[in-house]
Amino acid sequence: MRKYTLITLFCFCTAPFLSAQEPLVVEGAIVIQDTTSSPVLDGTIQFEGTEFQGRVAGAWKPFALGSPSLWVNDADNLYYSVAGGYVGIGVADPLARLHVKYRSEADRPLLRLTELDLGDVGQIRLENQNSSYFSIRYRLGGGDEPWMGWYTNEDPNLIYNPLRGALGLHKTDPLGTMQIHEPVRDTALLVMSPASSNQDSRIMLAEGPGGAVGMILHYDGGLNQFHIIGADNGGELDPAMRVKRTGEIALGQSFATGYKLSVDGKIMCEELQVMLEADWPDYVFESDYDLRPLSEVREYIDEHGHLPDVPAASEIEESGVPVGEMQRILLQKIEELTLYVIELSEENEELKSVLKAKN
User: Fold this and answer.
1) Which of the 8 DSSP states describes residue 293?
2) Which of 208, 252, 255 is nearest to 229 (CA)?
3) How far is CA 337 from CA 27, 69, 178, 322, 330, in A?
4) Regarding predicted confidence, which is higher, 328 or 137?
5) Is 277's pLDDT higher than 70?
6) Could you tell me which of 175, 139, 167, 170 has the C-alpha nearest to residue 155?
7) Do residues 63 and 54 make contact, with C-beta atoms less than 8 angstroms apart?
8) How far apart are CA 287 and CA 184, in angstroms?
9) How high is the pLDDT of residue 152?
10) pLDDT level of residue 67 (50, 70, 90 thresholds)
């Protein structure tokens, strides 16, 4: 069978200038002649059997007509699937509208966006039918620091500054290595969640690049407690502080039942202020206060080994000293002692008067 090659196109157009929407009308003939005996150059077009073919790199390649065929019948080049309307670059059976596959490291990058000048921003934009879009943008130069950003419409979701290694969430000019900004909602800026319930979440604050020494912020999902733990060369120390979700705090190993703050050790402070719920003992100086006679006080001491209303040593050893309550009790005893001294002073003055009268 002879092969006929299109070598000359004679045409006369009905209009000298046509717009992109107007059809091109050819008055004349397309001349096809036999050139099988002549050298065939790349770019030549022929009709072979049921398809048109083009001469590419010394070989005939079919055009995409009718059945799924290829722009260039070569896995290293560009493919088009008529059935799916898919385009493949480097892949003969594209699985998406655009499917790109690289063959070796030499093919990278798969996609390159080049700026027009140093002030332009390269952009990949995905848009829906409602004109909402998501875009990935990159800027280099133009007098500003370079950045790469992920945007929803014109709102920045994530900005990365490669010059400073800074990352901003909803922040175009992040301060520090990372800055999180919530522009709309009153909600948590950062949430760390484990794979399942009753598991732990951790943040490590390390001293150096090795990450072996520092402090760990740890939430124990089993105990429902927040811990601050020291890390030393890969090992963990006992928690320095524990906080329950109900508000109790323990500095040390355990919580004291019924108390908001438990300290396993000593405390030093310049001032401690205690707000008591019980009455301050100024009532001792009221006229109706029942002051025990000293004889009853002596009997109570002989029987119990301590002052009335004062906790025994065994109670203190077991439960500790309630500072606020103990201050109240001590002041009550001081005020009672003051009344006893006043009574003794009055009796002493009476005795002086009696003795003076006798003399």
Assistant:
1) P
2) 252
3) 131, 111, 65, 22, 10
4) 328
5) yes
6) 170
7) yes
8) 64
9) 85
10) very low
Can you spell out the DSSP letters for 225-269? EEEEEEEETTEEEEEEEEEETTS-EEESS-PPTT-SEEESS----
Query: Could you tell me if 255 and 262 are in contact, meaning their C-beta atoms sit under 8 angstroms apart?
Result: yes
The partner residues of 136 in beta bridges, in order of sequence, read: 124, 150
Task: Tell which residue, 151, 149, 137, 143, has the closest CA to residue 119.
Answer: 143
Cα distance between residue 285 and residue 120, in whole Å: 86
User: Of the segments 139-148, 186-195, 202-211, which one has the largest average pLDDT value?
Assistant: 202-211
Question: In this structure, how many other beta carbons lie within 10 angstroms of the beta carbon of residue 53?
Answer: 19
Dist CA 104 CA 116 (whole Å): 28
Distance CA 27, CA 18 (A): 15
For 163, residues 6+ apart whose C-beta sits below 8 A from its C-beta are 145, 146
Provide the residue ranges of all domains of the chain, joining segments of one domain with +. 4-107, 121-180, 201-263, 281-358
Q: What pLDDT is attached to residue 31?
A: 37
Report the distance separating Cα 28 and Cα 10, nearest Å. Answer: 6
C-alpha distances (whole Å) from 99 to each of 42, 77, 81 are 27, 12, 11
Q: What are the phi and psi torsion angles at 130 (to 5°)?
A: -90, 10
Query: Which has the minimum average pLDDT: 23-27, 53-57, 58-62?
Result: 23-27
Q: How far apart are CA 47 and CA 57, in angstroms?
A: 18
pTM value is 0.52
Q: Around 140, how many Cα atoms within 13 Å sit in the side-chain half-sphere?
A: 10
Structural tokens at position 162: 């490669």
Could you tell me what percent of the chain has a pLDDT over 70? 73
C-alpha 316: how far from chain center: 48
Q: Which two tokens stand for residue 189?
A: 């800026």
